[in-house]
Write a structure and sequence with these properties.
Oligomer: single chain
Shape: globular
Radius of gyration: 21 Å
Order of helices and strands: HHHHHHHHHHHHHHHH
Structural class: mainly alpha
Helix content: over 70%
Number of strands: 0
Strand content: under 5%
C-alpha cells in the first residue's frame, strides 16, 4: 500500500487540464483518436448503466425488507420536491436578473447544435444495453420488493452476488479508465471550439446558472446537515470528487461509482446509499432543472416571448416528472424536455435547436449539481430511515 498514490480527484483535475491543452494544440487525427476511445468507453458505460442500476437497487431494496416501500416513497418524494424547488429558484432568479443583463428581444443570430463541431471517432462499436434505464429501474423495483415481500433468500443471494460482480466491474474497469475518458471528452470539446463559442455569447446566463447550482447545493446540504446533525460544509466538501467526475463525464449514471463512495464517506449506511444513489441518478435532476428553466427563460426573453409564473410553474411541475425519463447520458435531460418545450412553452424547431445548444454547452455543471445533490438526498433519507424501528 503506497501512500503517495494519486487520488481520483487529482487525476480528474489533471485530465481536464490536459484535455484542454491537447484539444488546443493537437492535430485533427490525434483528437479523433481520443474521440474514438471516448466513444468506445461511452458506449460501454451505456451498456453498464442498467446493470449498475439493477446491481445496486434490487439487492438494496431486498435488504431493506419491510422498510423498502416507505424508503422508496421517501426518496422519490424528496427527489421530486428538490427538483421542483430548484426550478422555482431558477424562475425567481431569472425574473429578477434577466431584465437587467439581457436585452429583451435582442436575439438575432441563430446557433447550431455544438455537437456538430465535435470530431467523429474513426470507428464505432455498438454496445446496446440489454434493456433501457426505465426498464432497469422497474425490474430492480420488482425484484427487490418481491424478494422483500416473499423473503426470498435464494433470490436475494443471487442479487447480492450480482452486486459484487458490478462492484468488481466498477473498481477494476470503470474507475481506472474514467480519467482517460474525461481527458478525451475535454480534448474534443476544446478542439471543436464549443467551450469558447457559446460561453462567450451567453456568459452572463451561465454565470447565473452556476451560481444558482452552488446556492441550491448549499441549501440542500444545510437541510441534510440539520437532519443528520452534521456540519453541512463538511458533507459538501466530501462530495467534491463526485462533482468533478460528473463535470468530466456529463452523466449522472456514469458518476454513480464515485458518488456512492463519497456518500458512504459522509456516514450514510451502505444499504441506504446503494439504494438511493443509483435511484437518484435517474429521478433527481435539480441541477438540470435549474439549467433548463434558466436557459428556456433566457431564450424566451431574448425572443420577446412572455415568461410569466402562469406559464412557467406548470412547466416546472411537469419537468420534475419528465426528468425521471431522462437518460443518464450527456444531454439526456434536454432531450427528454423537448416535448414540454414545444407543447407548453411554444418553442419551434429553431428555438429548440438553440435550447439544445445552450444546454449542452454547460451540461457538465448541471450534471455535477445533480450528482452532488444526490448525496444530500441520501443523507436526508438515511436520517429519516434511522428513526424507524428495525
Amino acid at each position: 500500500m503506497k501512500k503517495n498514490k494519486l487520488g481520483l480527484l487529482p487525476k480528474i483535475l489533471i485530465a481536464i487540464i490536459l484535455g484542454i491543452v491537447i484539444g488546443s494544440l493537437s492535430p485533427e487525427w490525434l483528437v479523433a483518436s481520443l474521440a474514438t476511445f471516448s466513444g468506445l468507453f461511452g458506449n460501454f458505460l451505456g451498456f453498464a448503466i442498467p446493470l449498475i442500476i439493477i446491481g445496486f437497487i434490487a439487492p438494496g431494496i431486498g435488504e431493506l425488507g419491510k422498510g423498502a416501500g416507505r424508503l422508496l416513497g421517501v426518496t422519490t418524494g424528496l427527489a421530486y420536491i428538490s427538483t421542483v424547488l430548484a426550478g422555482l429558484l431558477a424562475f425567481v432568479a431569472a425574473t429578477l436578473l434577466y431584465p437587467h443583463v439581457l436585452e429583451v428581444g435582442g436575439l438575432i443570430n441563430s446557433y447550431t447544435n455544438p455537437e456538430e463541431a465535435l470530431l467523429e471517432p474513426f470507428f464505432k462499436v455498438e454496445m446496446p444495453p440489454v434493456f433501457g434505464v426505465m426498464t432497469a429501474l422497474l425490474l430492480a423495483f420488482t425484484l427487490g420488493l418481491g424478494a422483500a415481500v416473499i423473503k426470498g433468500q435464494a433470490l436475494q443471494k443471487v442479487m447480492v452476488d450480482f452486486r459484487e460482480i458490478v462492484e468488481k466491474l466498477i473498481a477494476s474497469v470503470i474507475i481506472p479508465l474514467l480519467p482517460y475518458h474525461i481527458l478525451c471528452v475535454f480534448a474534443n470539446l476544446t478542439y471543436g471550439g464549443q467551450v469558447t463559442m457559446i460561453l462567450s455569447v451567453f456568459a452572463k446566463v451561465f454565470i447565473m446558472i452556476i451560481a444558482l447550482h452552488v446556492l441550491f447545493l448549499v441549501i440542500q446540504y444545510f437541510v441534510a446537515g440539520q437532519v443528520a446533525r452534521k456540519n453541512p460544509f463538511t458533507l459538501l466538501k466530501n462530495m467534491v470528487p463526485a462533482y468533478f467526475t460528473a463535470i468530466g463525464t456529463q452523466s449522472s449514471a456514469a458518476a454513480i461509482p464515485v458518488t456512492l463512495r463519497q456518500t458512504k464517506l459522509n456516514g450514510v449506511r451502505g444499504k441506504v446509499a446503494d439504494f438511493v444513489i443509483p435511484l437518484c441518478a435517474t429521478i433527481h435532476l435539480s441541477g438540470s432543472t435549474i439549467t433548463l428553466v434558466s436557459c428556456s427563460m433566457a431564450v424566451m426573453l431574448l425572443t420577446g416571448m412572455p415568461a410569466s409564473i402562469g406559464t412557467m410553474f406548470p412547466f416546472i411541475l411537469m419537468l420534475g416528472i419528465t426528468m425521471v425519463a431522462a437518460p443518464g447520458v450527456p444531454g439526456g435531460a434536454v432531450m427528454a424536455a423537448l416535448g414540454l418545450l414545444e407543447s407548453m412553452l411554444g418553442f419551434d424547431t429553431t428555438l429548440t435547436s438553440l435550447m439544445i445548444a445552450l444546454y449542452i454547452a454547460q451540461d457538465s455543471f448541471g450534471t455535477a449539481c445533480n450528482v452532488t445533490g444526490d448525496g444530500a438526498i441520501a443523507v436526508i433519507t438515511d436520517g429519516v430511515s434511522r428513526s424507524e424501528p428495525a
